[in-house]
Design a protein that fits this description.
Elements: E1 5-10, H1 16-27, E2 30-32, H2 35-44, H3 48-57, H4 62-67, H5 69-73, H6 84-102, E3 106-109, H7 113-116, E4 123-129, H8 132-143, H9 147-169, E5 181-184, H10 185-201
Parallel strand pairs: 1-3, 1-4, 2-3, 4-5
Amino acid sequence: MKKKIITIARQYGSCGREIGQALAEKLGYKYYDRDLISLAAEKSGMNKEILHEADEKAATSILYTLALGSSVMAHGVDHINVPLNDKLYIVQSNIIRDIYNSGDGAIIVGRCADYILADKEDVIKVFISADFDERVNTIAKRCEINHSKAKDMIVKTDKRRANYYNYYTGKKWGKIENYDLVINSSKAGIDGAVKLIETFNNL
């Protein structure tokens, strides 16, 4: 039987990435996150550094994408009328479908993977949240910044993720109806979240 794909969407600072990595290690699944951008660069011939930069700006500045046009053309990108972030989304979507079709178990963090694989019955769609104050503490410690800056980063990053998801899916990021399992990592912890997802995976 084909192993299941587990997609993880997460609030910034909720330790969704750490949960995904721990889950992949425990289940023996492959783990995909920002490395999908590198895979997209390899598959499309687009420049990896430019794609990483565009990914960070994708949902915040259309003018930024247009401004990159001349630079991008120098790196073999075709269909120049398509904005760079759209090209990246299309290529990443194809890679995510290829991952599913490979039959290997995989954890995919972000990238609208839950939407891209929405029609697949053997995909578990997870959303990780956490209490705001705890997220502030996590980001302040991780980035070595004060709490005020951490709060600002969280608000801006969550807004960027929501805008990206809402734009490409037509659905609302974080809305519980879009997911099979919603976990508050402040209550469950990383290990508890891994156990909950693993249990759900075995149902």
